[in-house]
Structure formats: C-alpha cells, structure tokens
Specification:
- The longest helix is centred in the N-terminal third of the chain and has 13 residues.
- The protein is an alpha/beta fold and 149 residues long.
- It contains 4 helices and 7 strands, in the order βαβαββαβαββ.
- The radius of gyration is 14 Å and the shape is globular.
- 30% of the residues lie in helices and 32% in strands.
- Helix 3 crosses helix 4.
- A 7-stranded mixed β-sheet has the order 3-2-1-4-5-7-6, sandwiched between helices.
Length: 149
C-alpha cells in the first residue's frame, strides 16, 4: 500500500501510518518545511521505520507528485488543505497521484476552517474527481472520506 501524507510536520500520524503499511508498503510525506522533514526522518530512523518512508520537500506552489501518477492508495489530509494556497490544485494533484478507488481522509479543524470554507474544499475535491463516500465524526473537525472515481 502507498500512502500520501501532505504536510506531515514532525510526523504525528506518519510513524503510525508507516507501521500500518507494513514492510512492503510506503508512506510518501511531503512538506514545504525542510526542518520538519529532517525531524521526521530522524524520528522514523529511531523507530526503525525509515525504510517505509519517502520524504520530500516541495515548493509552496506544488507537491511535486507527477512521478506518483495513479499509484497512491490512501491520502491523509489532516488539518492541511487550508494551509495550501490553492485547494483546487491540491485536490487535482492528489487525484492525479491516486489510483481509481483510492481514499482520502480530509479533516479540517473547526477553529481554523468554517463550515462554508470546508464545503468549498469539498467542491474543489469533487471537481478533481473525488466524491464524498462518508462523513465520519472526528472531534472538533469537519471531516469527509473521499473516494477517487
């Protein structure tokens, strides 16, 4: 399984994702902050998970995922889309990297993202070919599980 995690920071979810994909899987973590990626690499090495992790420093305008075309099974976008300058581009890049049937868990903190802004993110996702499969309850978050059609 290949998992994409945009904006992992220091890797709050990344190491657990690396455990879940197993020895034959990989997690691709993309961040604009080199210091966060360096910390994540150190934490992964210390946990013995660095072989399952591919880290990338990306420019602010793109995640640089062209080489992942139709190869991602799952994307975790937790409290990150509102940080991107263009949600439409974010979802287009994720959709292009995702296999048909792949899932994306989108969660945005209610304190930072109002309901109308979250709905606008879902509209941008739909335009990229990602449909809402379910609306899970995540405490203090707007959330949706999306599927690539």
């Amino acid at each position: 399984m290949t998992v994409l995690e945009p904006g992992p920071g220091m890797g709050y979810f990344t190491l657990e994702l690396a455990r879940l994909v197993g020895a034959s899987g990989r997690v691709v973590a993309v961040d604009v902050q080199p210091k966060m990626i360096a910390r994540l690499q150190r934490r992964a090495a210390k946990a013995g998970l660095d072989g399952r992790l591919e880290v990338r420093v990306a420019p602010a305008e793109s995640m640089g995922l062209a080489d992942l075309q139709s190869s991602v099974d799952f994307t975790l976008a937790f409290a990150v889309v509102h940080e991107f300058p263009d949600a439409t581009r974010f979802f287009a890049e994720v959709a292009a990297a995702s296999k048909t049937g792949a899932s994306l868990l989108l969660a945005e903190p209610k304190g930072h993202v109002k309901q109308a802004a979250f709905e606008a993110e879902l509209d941008a996702a739909a335009k990229a070919g990602l449909k809402v499969a379910e609306r899970p309850a995540i405490r203090r978050c707007h959330a949706a599980l999306l599927e690539k059609t």
